[in-house]
Amino acid sequence: MLPDVTTLRDPLIRPVGRKTSDVLESVFGLRTVGDLLRHYPRRYYTRGELTSLAALRENDHITVLARVAQARLVPMRPPHWRPPKDKPYRSNDRAEVIVTDGMATLTLTFFAKAHFHVKQLQPGTLGLFAGTVSTYRGRRQLVHPEYELLPEAASDERITAELAAEYATELIPVYPATAKLSSWQISRAIQVILDTLDAGEDPLPEDVRQKYRLWPRETAIRAIHRPQDREDLDQARKRLKWDEAFSMQTALAQRRLAAAAMPAVPRPPEPDGIAAAFDAGLPFTLTDGQRHVGEVIARDLSCAYPMNRLLQGEVGSGKTVVAVRAMLQVVDAGGQAALLAPTEVLAQQHYRSITQLLGPLARGGQLDGAEGATRVALLTGSTGVAARRSALSDVFTGDAGILIGTHALLENRVQFADLGLVVIDEQHRFGVEQRDALREKAAGARPHVLVMTATPIPRTVAMTVFGDLEVSTLAELPAGRSPIASHVVPAERPRYLERAWERVREEVAGGRQAYVVCPRIGDEAPGEGDYEAVADDDGGGDEGDDGTAAAPPAARRPPLAVLDVAPALAQGPLSGLRFGVLHGRLNPDEKDRVMSAFAGGDIDVLVATTVIEVGVDVPNATAMVIMDAERFGVSQLHQLRGRVGRGEAPGLCLLVTDTPEASPSRERLDAVAATSDGFRLSRLDLMQRREGDVLGAAQAGRHSSLKMLRLLSDEELIAFAREEASALVETDPRLDAHPALRDAIDDLLGPQRAEFLDKA
Ligand code: ADP
Ligand code: MG
Q1: How confident is the model at residue 556 (pLDDT cuts 50, 70, 90)?
Q2: Is the minimum distance from the CB of 287 to ligand 1 under 6 angstroms?
Q3: Cα(165)–Cα(226) distance, integer angstroms
Q4: Confidence band (pLDDT; 50, 70, 90) for 664?
Q5: Residue 67: beta bridge partners?
Q6: Which strands, in side-by-side order, build the sheet including 308-313?
Q7: Is the C-beta atom of 313 inside 6 A of ligand 1?
């Protein structure tokens, strides 16, 4: 009989058995042999180099390479108890084993089978130890760790020949592991597979492999799990990165080809239209950036294929006016434009400011309307029945050239006469589904799409790295605008917090206003989740260095709440000032009333949740104090502070936190305080998490797609892959001559890969 051959698409249960495959699937989402082989080691330990134990953090699940320094039984018995002669031990003795890296130590504690462990772990023994770090009497320890002894001397009788062979090389792979399945159990499962693996045809074309001197795929797969040395590892990594980059780029190239066949209606500028009239009447001069981006967009809109452009610009850089000019160009060309905003408050603000900027140009059909004027319609969840009916009808007939609104725009009954441009403001707040729903509303041809944000989500940054989303940036702020000064206010310095409130009082005394932001509303019904803070696209980077994600932090006090903080300030450090509160549980009328009062200067201090995060524009507000700032993501903080410093007075943002100095959370806050560049902060965000998660998140139930590629450090490789992939798709658009590549793309991105890629 021929020996069994394992292929990449085999289900895992075949080679590794049900128990292991169940854990691999439930914990890591791995289903096939290929999935497991792409579960790459997180790091490699070099034999002889022990893991540094000094930096272990509580609650991290770790795997360390260390040497046993001491192993002893600790009696668990009353102080004066003496063992009977015939039974010198008691079963409830515990084992205390101290392991070391030569400098620091870590205690291992075993309550069960204490004798056995002490016997196994004799001083001098080298092993891998895995568990979750806890602290007992000030010492870090692992309770009941899993361990694996490593052979050093062939004579060691506890080490089987099999084991000795397994750890024969210099580098010991350490896999992302869990309490249910240790790194070395995963390693063993992979070994079983490698013994019978036939990885099949190489998906990367021979000429590309030659040109970039890449290893065959199967060699790389074997080497990444069993490297002989670091050199091996570099070669294997390079090849596997290419696989990911090339598959991605091939799929993207195919999508571009398909998109080129999908026409859009060209909407060229009209020199005597209302766009020109709007420009002539602007109360300010456009910045160079606004003018330049405007030209680029005007050109895009004139093309017969759909624009897909990201307008990235600092908070307050004036993205809205760029969008308005684009919308007017489309209106001039006979089409309509929709502007989607994430919140009611923002939609209303856009409606007010845009109708105001347009003046008579927005009063089409009215006596005082300008010649060729259009109409602007507003549609939100709280638009009244009559207003809604007239908005819907204006949009349907085409009398309204511009429709502004919230999610309400996505409803079925919203029908356009000729939707030519979709603008999505604060894009990071939307899922792609919403963009697609809106795009579907264009009959026939596809509309042009402009998305805007100050803080692109990591996924968006990723797509720009792949080169498939055009980006324009507004780098400068309009003249006369001051930058925002941000500072971290650490709780360990109570004086700083006092000073923060003094600063707020000073601003108010100078006729200015302030925001105080809290992560929670407060006063909730039991069990009600009302965290408005934590955005799903943020706060990454919480993974332990070894093994799995860190356990949740030990119980902490609940985050500060608007409904607690407001009265505390009003009776304490900010007494005498006029307060208002704003949060998601207020009904739209109340929200509107509070916002109007704040905008009108009748409120000094607005205590709010993140409802104020996006777009709210009150130029007289100059200070913001963010409580429990570590609870917010990087992008969110950046968005929040964009609410101050929108006028001529300099803005001030204070990030209050009780996270310890030099902790990752504090470092994140320090980075936010140190830079005002949203794109840099997004890259920081991206760097703190694994790119695979970034692109993989959109695939429900599928494990991540990019494991090896590091978007930011591999930009060059990604660009080469793009070049090669485009060339290949040009000659073989459906990959008929490259079936192995087609399979590789399916394995990487899933069968709905086109839609998936489209979700950038
Ligand atoms: P963001 O880019 O954050 O969306 P906005 O579009 O809301 O910023 O613009 C912020 C403010 O700056 C608005 O009040 C807008 O009218 C104003 N503004 C935009 N462009 C200019 C400019 N070129 N000169 C002066 N003010 C401008
Ligand atoms: Mg804006």
Answers
A1: low
A2: yes
A3: 11
A4: confident
A5: 100, 126
A6: 375-379, 400-405, 336-340, 419-424, 448-453, 308-313, 470-474
A7: yes
Report d(CA 240, CA 215) in Å as an integer: 9
Cα 672 to Cα 44, 377, 630, 639, 689, distances in angstroms: 33, 37, 11, 11, 17
- Asked whether residue 527 carries a pLDDT value surpassing 50, the answer given is no
| Tokens linked to 547 | 């093994």
Separation of 617 CA from ligand 1 center, angstroms? Answer: 9
Q: Closest Cα to atom 4, ligand 1: which residue? A: 319
Specify the amino acid at residue 224: I
| pLDDT of 698 strictly over 80 | no
Identity of the amino acid at 65? L
**pLDDT tens for residues 720-752?**
999 999 999 999 999 999 999 998 888 877 655
Span 190-217, mean pLDDT?
Answer: 95
Would you call 190 helix, strand, or coil by DSSP?
helix
- Quick one: tokens of 131? 């568990």
* CB-facing half-sphere around the CA of 49: CA atoms within 13 A: 7
Spatial CB neighbours of 482, under 8 Å, sequence gap ≥ 6 = 645, 648, 649, 650, 651
CA dihedral sign of residues 96, 99, 100, 106? negative
Strand pairing class (621-626; 651-657): parallel
Residue 191: helix, strand or coil by DSSP? Answer: helix
| pLDDT bracket for residue 529 (50, 70, 90) | very low
Q: Mean pLDDT across the chain, nearest whole number? A: 83
For residue 191, what are the CA distances in angstroms to 11, 15, 150, 167, 173? 16, 10, 17, 11, 12
Task: Determine if ligand 1 sits within 6 Å of the CB of residue 325.
Answer: no
Band (pLDDT 50/70/90 cuts) for residue 646 is: low
- Cα 218 to Cα 445: distance, rounded to the nearest angstrom: 45
Cα–Cα distance measured from residue 203 to residue 360, given in angstroms and rounded to the nearest whole number = 61
Long-range contacts of 430-438 (CB under 8 A, 24+ apart): 430/340, 430/342, 432/698, 432/758, 432/759, 432/760, 434/340, 434/407, 434/410, 435/340, 436/758, 437/410, 438/338, 438/340, 438/409, 438/410
In one-letter notation, the amino acid at residue 666 is R
For ligand 1, atom 5, the nearest C-alpha belongs to 318
Of 738, 687, 716, the residue nearest 251 (C-alpha): 738
Amino acid letter, 626: I
Q: Is 477 in the pocket of ligand 1 (CB under 6 A)?
A: no
pLDDT value for 397: 96
678: part of which helix (H) or strand (E)?
Answer: helix 678-688
Count the helices and strands in the chain (H runs, E runs): 26, 21
